[in-house]
Amino acid sequence: MLARPDLDAGVAVWDDYLHLRDNPAGETQDLWQHEAGCGAWLVVTRDTVSHEISGVKLAADVKRTMGAVS
Question: The whole model's pTM is what?
Answer without folding.
Answer: 0.62
